[in-house]
Design goal:
The complex is a heterodimer of chains A (244) and B (255). Chain A is α/β, with parallel strands linked by helices. Chain A is built from eight helices and ten strands. Chain A is globular and about 55 Å long. With 255 residues, chain B is mostly helical. Chain B has one domain. Chain B has eight helices and no strands. Chain B starts with a helix and ends with a helix. The chains are: A alpha/beta (244), B mainly alpha (255). At the A-B interface, helix 2 and helix 3 of A face helix 4 of B.
Chain lengths: 244, 255
């Protein structure tokens, strides 16, 4: 479980996150939704440690990330997988080497064991015969799937997905959504997804946090999304492609 | 006055940030085996990719030096073996270490800055951080150490080739015979000049690689910023090379 408490983040005196608190449970797909510039990405960057909040707490199974020392943070990060908006695959490495990278860095596995795990992860995201291709040779959807394969290579407890559907066609988006949902439930991962895609939220949103101008205005699940009573959320849903 | 204070503050900010980057770089790598593999690949890439350009430039530097110095010596009472000595010392002391370093700043420096800059803007550096790696160490250290191997080796190679270029020039221009030129090359050789040249080469290698890696690592934005980082890396590396060239020459040769 991930718990965040009263997170405040400012840039040059401007408050971007204002006292945000939430809990994210394992085996569930939790969504952080909101308009562009609302603070979703900043919140995710704070949670994974790329940014340090001015105040608040971020706790991974009762381990306060902000209070941990360098080594403990490093160990905790190996339990975190992240799927980036653009995939963030290493250009100089093949698909196989990208997925093998965390295994080579953090495990003592032999070459054969690593290859076996890489092939398993690639099959799990329904990618075959692409091991030797480079990121520049594969499509956007395939990059996302390789990103997921890399993120799950070390059996993470926590999975963060930043706009997993951006730039993808509806069919590929659906495939990515299904993969994330399957993996979350199969491995009992605590998954947090930043998204604009209201269709994905309605399909998979076990837990949803709506952020508006740096504040968490609404929290609930997909069943209550249409009847939240929150004007800003209703406007956001109406304005989305799904609500039109 | 206010402008000078502002510029001083900007420089101190840059220098402090550069030192912090170096502190993050110079730590024990997370995995020795991966680091060694990365280091060897960088040494090979830097050395192999720069081999041709260093060869061409060095041969022509030596050839031009022979013509320029030789044209001033012809007709004088000075023995012509002096030509070999002058060209040798100029090549070893200045031309090979400095010009090779300036060319490397353009070639290796821009390559390092744009490579790391692209990794930064495409979130590859963030991916390394989230995995729990020291990203500055992972991307910076192999490049800095590789430059410390490759650039002095290229400078040594350049010293040899520039003197060879002088011999080729003698052969084609008949300014002096090749035998006289080679006799001059052998005359009164001071080994300390090579030490001086290699000291400059190591210093330049460190400056080029660390300044370029720093600018790449600080890149924020997109393609335009990657280009700007690359340009900054080359310009600042060149200025640093020339500045330290002067400092080291004064410290080591001025008695």
């Amino acid at each position: 479980m991930i718990e965040i408490g009263s997170i405040v983040k400012e840039f040059n005196g401007k408050r971007v996150l204002d006292q945000i608190s939430a809990e994210f449970e394992p085996s569930k797909c939790s969504f952080v939704i909101g308009a562009s510039g609302g603070g979703k990405s900043v919140l995710m960057k704070c949670m994974v440690g790329l940014l340090t909040p001015e105040s608040g707490s971020i706790s991974f199974n009762n381990r306060d990330f902000l209070q941990l020392d360098y080594q403990a943070k490093k160990d905790l990060r190996q339990e975190i997988g992240m799927l980036f908006q653009g995939g963030a695959l290493f250009d100089s490495l093949s698909v196989e080497d990208n997925v093998a990278f965390p295994l080579q860095m953090f495990t003592q596995k032999t070459k054969e064991e690593i290859l076996e795990r890489v092939n398993f992860c690639l099959q799990r995201v329904k990618l075959e015969n692409v091991n030797k291709l480079f990121p520049s040779n594969i499509s956007g959807g395939m990059k996302k799937r390789v990103g997921i394969a890399r993120a799950i290579a070390l059996n993470p407890k926590y999975l963060f997905c930043d706009e997993p559907n951006s730039g993808l066609d509806p069919i590929t988006s659906r495939v990515i959504d299904e993969l994330i949902l399957e993996i979350t439930q199969e491995y009992k991962i605590t998954t947090i997804i930043n998204s604009h895609d209201i269709k994905s939220v309605f399909d998979m949103g076990d837990h949803i946090v709506f952020i508006y101008q740096g504040k968490a205005l609404w929290e609930g699940n997909k069943s209550f999304l249409g009847k939240s009573g929150c004007k800003e959320l209703d406007d956001f849903i109406k304005a989305s492609e799904f609500g039109r | 006055m206010a402008n000078q204070v502002y510029l001083s503050m900007k420089f101190l900010e840059f220098f402090g940030s550069y030192l912090l980057f170096l502190r993050a770089c110079f730590r024990l790598p997370d995995k020795g085996k991966m680091f060694r593999r990365s280091l060897l690949a960088e040494v090979y890439k830097m050395g192999n990719d720069s081999f041709a350009i260093v060869s061409i430039i060095s041969i022509f530097i030596g050839a031009v030096a022979v013509i320029q110095f030789g044209s001033q010596l012809i007709g004088s009472l000075v023995p012509m073996t002096i030509l070999g000595r002058i060209v040798r010392d100029a090549n070893i002391l200045e031309f090979s270490p400095t010009i090779t370093a300036l060319v490397m700043a353009g070639k290796i420096g821009s390559n390092i800055a744009s490579e790391i800059g692209t990794m930064k803007v495409s979130e590859q550096i963030d991916a390394l951080e989230i995995m729990g790696l020291n990203s500055a160490n992972y991307v910076g250290l192999p490049k800095i150490l590789a430059a410390l191997f490759a650039i002095p080796a290229l400078v040594t190679y350049s010293m040899f080739l520039s003197n060879l270029g002088g011999a080729i020039s003698c052969y084609f221009t008949n300014m002096v015979t090749v035998d006289i030129y080679i006799a001059g090359l052998r005359e009164s050789f001071d080994g300390f000049y090579v030490t001086h040249a290699l000291t400059k080469a190591f210093t330049s290698a460190f400056l080029i690689s660390s300044i370029s890696a720093y600018h790449g690592y600080q890149t924020e934005g997109g393609a335009l910023e990657v280009g700007a980082a690359s340009t900054k890396a080359v310009v600042q590396s060149c200025i640093a090379i020339i500045f330290f060239d002067y400092i080291l020459t004064q410290l080591m040769l001025y008695k």
